[in-house]
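Recap quiz, item 2
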Amino acid sequence: MSALSAIVPQGNDREMEFAFSASDHRAIADMIYAESGILLPDSKAKLIYGRLARRLRACGLSDFPTYLAMIEHDPEEKARAVDALTTNHTAFFRENHHFEHFRDELWPAFLQRLAGGGRVRVWSAACSSGEEPYSLMMTIAGQDVRAAEKLANQDFRLLATDLSPSVIATARAGRYPLDTTRAMPASMRQAWCRRVGEQDELHPALRAPIAFRELNLLRGWPMKRPFDVIFCRNVMIYFDEATKARLLSRFADQMVDGGIIYIGHAERVPPEVSARFRCIGRTAFQKVS
Ligand SMILES: C[S@@+](CC[C@H](N)C(=O)[O-])C[C@H]1O[C@@H](n2cnc3c(N)ncnc32)[C@H](O)[C@@H]1O
């Protein structure tokens, strides 16, 4: 049985309250690909159904074709559909070797530059709910709140962007469920988290140098000046080869010569753009001038 036929409603099963045909799946997959580059093949039928059934209910609709017709004329609902279809899995200190590489190999020179009045720019592209940029901040500051506070007064900025407005709102708030912050090393959690009800709130000094923004990586980028370092991890796995190559080429254009990009552990630099980067470590690449 295909993934699709498995979720076509039968009887009164609550989880299968809407019919979901192959052409509904195709229309949604085409829409999300055009909007975000995300591929949703047949194997993702259950995921699409589960995430959009909630939107149908919220809109008071009873079938997918009506919902699809609606989002064609309702950009806000379309954005909600795209938001619902993004996969935002992340964690504090995920693929920690990148943060360690940044701290050990790049940060000493950046600190010197900052001390001399220079600028350092880092971009966490597709940052989800913020664990990635906050982990970087914690790694460079250690447990030293003053070190983080000092950064806010120097020309150091960490841009953190994502397509999904809901995760950017979480990131900006800097509050996380206790299950999420338990994944941090105990010393970091003690230094940077303050219990607020059933959540942990991150120290304002960690948040000050970070600018959280909604940004679709496939559309225009408003940033004019180049970045020293880009983290773009675990988003290109959802893209096809042409989109990955285009994106990496744009990243290269948006980086200083010798700038560094970190990608996810399951991601590769496609051959079309490999001449623009030199591998300098595990899923870490340097822009070739
Ligand atoms: C799996 S998360 C990765 C988060 C983090 N970088 C990490 O490695 O833990 C992928 C993120 O990519 C975002 N995303 C997907 N397509 C995007 C696009 N076209 N532009 C910007 N962000 C996108 C999703 O909203 C999601 O939050």
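The chain has two domains: 5-85, 96-287.
The CA atoms of residues 136 and 180 lie 16 Å apart.
End of item.
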